[in-house]
Amino acid sequence: MGSRLRVLAAAAAATAGLASVAGAATAAPATANGRTMHSCATSTAGTAHCLAVLRTDVHASNSALRKAAATPSGYGPADLQSAYQLPSSSAGGGQTVAIVDAYDAPTAEQDLAVYRTQYGLPACTTANGCFRKVDQNGGTSYPRKDGGWAQEISLDLDMVSAVCPNCHILLVEAKSSSFANLGAAVNRAATMGANVISNSYGGSDASDANYGSYYNHPGIAVTVSSGDSGYGVEYPASSHYVTAVGGTSLTKASNSRGWTETAWNGAGSGCSTYNTALSGQSAAGTGCAKRAVADVSAVADPNTGVAVYDSTAYQGYSGWMVFGGTSVAAPVIGAVYGLAGNAASIDNNYPYAHASALYDVTGGSNGSCPTSQWCTARTGWDGPTGLGTPNGVGAF
């Protein structure tokens, strides 16, 4: 993807003397191999970390890209719309997809404009009513800036734009990465009229008895990343009230679809210790006594990652970058819910009754586990990819 841009990026990196990430206080993703890093530090009890995984070998400034008349590396809107057979040009009007993240991305709106301009998407601004940014109280007293979470925010905004360019976007910034503050931001998004709320973060498996009130919003689709460390469950993906979104490796192919997918080896999966299973999971053969993760999935492998623009530098990286992680998959699925426009009348069991409208992912694994379907893709439900990936909007 984008060999000309790789040359530019390498030259730019050498000139700028980009900082080494070897000592960065970040979690190592399952696909590390020296070319990826997490955008957010690991979480502690009661807090969450974002689930964006940055490719450190592919990046360039917007000015360098424009000067070279190059296309950003990584999949763009046309790729995602093709891979998942989405009616992006005609659907999504009147829908609002909320993005909930921690801390402030001070240039979120400007960076969003660069992304949408690059790909010929309609403008989404505060001025035209498409974009709105608030703090967790619904005001403009934004939290402190954090470069890693700013990357996450840009990733989320860009993925909603790529999949549902007609959707309105509401960004709600929590004042910290605690479950309490992130949950308050989710509640704020719900009160502000969001049809869909996307959450690209996670922490240790936890109980809905403690945090479920933040995610229990009937009539609103709530999507959550499943995790980036392979087999193992994170919260709030393990909540009974959300759509847990796993991850795949997505590559172009010479088949009738034009694409092929396997389970990404970093996708989180497994069984919650605390929370009850969805009713739709009873016939899916999950093998879990309680809530099974994931429900559905989308691209998440940074090696088959997506193009993102962010100007807030983190560990020396900014500009056009390539990201993976289930932080990609959660807003992609959130935006598909926006395209479908059905959130008011369905719940998170809906995909289980409409699995025929998904691409079943049957290859790949995210590790070893006590029961094979918790970590190995197969026909039907499996942990890393759930029921599969969108084939249109029929499962949403």
UniProtKB/TrEMBL annotation:
- What InterPro entries does the record tag this protein with? Peptidase_S8/S53_dom_sf, Sedolisin_dom, TAT_signal, Tripeptidyl-peptidase_I
Tell me which Gene Ontology terms the entry assigns under biological process: proteolysis
Query: Does the keyword field hold Acetylation?
Result: no
Domain Peptidase S53 positions: 74-396
Signal sequence interval, chain numbering: 1-27
Q: Which PROSITE patterns match?
A: SEDOLISIN, TAT
- Keyword annotations: Signal
> Signal among the record's keywords?
yes
Q: Which GO terms describe its molecular function?
A: serine-type endopeptidase activity; tripeptidyl-peptidase activity
Name this polypeptide is given:
Peptidase S8
